[in-house]
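Title: Comparing notes on inverse folding

I've been comparing how different people in this forum approach sequence design from structure. To keep things fair, I'm posting one structure and asking everyone to reply with a full sequence. Here's the target:
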């Protein structure tokens, strides 16, 4: 277990791009060994209040730190897969070996902005599989034409990286984890309590994941005391705690805020790891690594990011070295 496997998650939904640039620099200095960011058009809640463009920001963040970076994106509706492939190739060329991307089927919150029908999950997964194939072929230097759920006509990337960035699959359920194992270079999923996370890992391995890398995003609330941590979790992260069918279907921050009006503070405990005790966070991370995750990207859901980075870097990361 080494500290370099603990990454910092930059939440575009909650902070301006300028603030996030300062925070990832601070995270690097505090001992975080990697970073990732969200790729949203809209936040999960009006109270979060931001949503910068991830791909512009990634270039700046990678130019001003030495960290590796990744993001989870959804090709096929808001982004044409050829454009995603070009963005991946450009970052990979500028920052060799430092960028990965995870491909997912998306949520209406971000994808329905095109005005096109937001498909059901099976169709979104089929579209994702086609998009992943197109992206992989373009990154291999091929000229690609494709006519299916997506259409591509004689696309080619003229700027290619020397080393192709990894294309991971984003999965929350066991079913999706088993499916992405067959075509993705690795897995990224979200931490959950109990045996749910182990079942996702087992499904990925059983589905053909073998020794492919696995990354985890863990939402945490780590403040000066448990009450402050719980308040932060409830204030900022009560809207994205629903099961994946609900997360995928709700179309706007207003819809998420309406759905969350009956969420209680205790309901956030589990989807968010809430504790002011450093040893509990050390134990959680240790259990993640025991499950086989190569990296855990920690997302403190509260607004007090600078204080979190400093405390986590002083109180938690040294115990993992």
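Reply #1:
Here's my take.
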């Amino acid at each position: 277990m080494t500290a370099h496997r603990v990454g910092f998650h930059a939440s575009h939904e909650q902070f301006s791009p300028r603030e996030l640039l300062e925070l990832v620099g601070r995270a690097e200095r505090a001992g975080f060994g990697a970073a990732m960011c969200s790729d949203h058009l809209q936040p999960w809640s009006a109270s979060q209040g931001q949503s910068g463009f991830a791909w512009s920001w990634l270039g700046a963040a990678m130019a001003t730190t030495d960290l590796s970076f990744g993001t989870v994106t959804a090709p096929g509706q808001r982004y044409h897969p050829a454009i995603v492939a070009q963005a991946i190739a450009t970052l990979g060329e500028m920052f060799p070996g430092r960028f990965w991307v995870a491909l997912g089927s998306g949520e209406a919150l971000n994808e329905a902005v095109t005005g096109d029908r937001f498909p059901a999950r099976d169709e979104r997964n089929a579209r994702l599989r086609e998009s992943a194939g197109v992206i992989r072929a373009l990154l291999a230097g091929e000229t690609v034409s494709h006519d299916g759920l997506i259409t591509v006509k004689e696309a080619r990337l003229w700027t290619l990286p020397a080393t192709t960035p990894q294309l991971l699959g984003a999965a929350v359920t066991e079913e999706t984890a088993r499916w992405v194992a067959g075509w993705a270079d690795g897995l990224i999923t979200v931490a959950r309590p109990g045996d749910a996370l182990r079942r996702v890992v087992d499904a990925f391995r059983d589905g053909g994941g073998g020794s492919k890398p696995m990354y985890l995003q863990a939402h945490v609330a780590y403040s000066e005391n448990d009450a402050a941590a719980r308040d932060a979790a409830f204030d900022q992260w009560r809207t994205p705690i629903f099961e994946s069918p609900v997360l995928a279907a709700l179309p706007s921050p207003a819809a998420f805020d309406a759905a969350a009006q009956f969420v209680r503070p205790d309901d956030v405990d589990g989807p968010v790891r809430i504790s002011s005790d450093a040893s509990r966070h050390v134990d959680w991370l240790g259990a993640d690594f025991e499950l086989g995750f190569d990296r855990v990207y920690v997302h403190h859901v509260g607004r007090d990011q600078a204080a979190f980075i400093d405390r986590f870097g002083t109180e938690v990361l040294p115990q993992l070295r």
